Amino acid sequence: MIEKYKNTVIYLLIGVGVIISILLLDRWILPQKTIEDTLIGYRVLTSTRSTQFGTSKVYIADRYYTALGNDFTIDIDRPIKDTEITITQSMLFKNINTLKNQSHDYTNKLTSGFNGVFLLFTHIIACSILISLGLLMSNRKLSKNQFQNIILFNGFMIFITLYLWALYN
């Protein structure tokens, strides 16, 4: 099994690694554009949780919309009062990386795009892919269990990351 699927797994990991490298390159290295914008509205994102005892709505975040067509999700307790904001946007994916107004910096509360827990999971996947590729490309003999663990862990982390991206975007 290992010999049959080893090259396929290596190519898939390299492909995912390239995509994550581009995301991280856009976030941390490429220049970013600062934009003055105005908030025009927001809505509360909730999820309905159903159990045998009934249903309840769970707060996820607030989704804000701006006059220039930008939108972002932020996890805060109360709505943003000041409508004049300054955002920093990445060049490739137009991701909002910083969010500030006159009175507060909301950068640490951003959850949409490549922010929040999504950014944490992309870092975990990047480290996992580096370790996995190192193990797969070495001359070391891997057991069937080790090979399956590499596939399942990376697959699970990619699934969770895509789920979080879909949830907050």
Write out key terms for the chains shown.
169 residues, alpha+beta, five-stranded antiparallel sheet, 5 strands, 44% helix, flat
Q: How would you portray this structure in words?
A:
- The structure is a single chain.
- 44% of the residues lie in helices and 30% in strands.
- With 169 residues, the chain is an alpha+beta fold.
- α1 (2-28) crosses α2 (116-137), α1 runs parallel beside α3 and α2 (116-137) runs antiparallel to α3 (144-168).
- The longest helix has 27 residues, at 2-28.
Q: How many H/I helices?
A: 3
> What letter string, H or E per element, gives the SSE order?
HEEEEEHH
Terminal CA distance reads 38 Å
Low-confidence stretches: none
**Helix vs. strand class:** alpha+beta
Total number of beta strands: 5
Query: How much beta, percentage-wise?
Result: 25-35%
The portion of residues assigned to helices is 40-55%
Q: If you compute it from the alpha carbons, what radius of gyration comes out, rounded to the nearest whole angstrom? A: 20 Å
Question: How many strands, what sense, and barrel or not for the largest sheet?
Answer: 5 strands, antiparallel
Q: Shape, please?
A: flat
Spatial strand sequence of the major β-sheet = 3-2-1-4-5
* Average pLDDT reading: 90
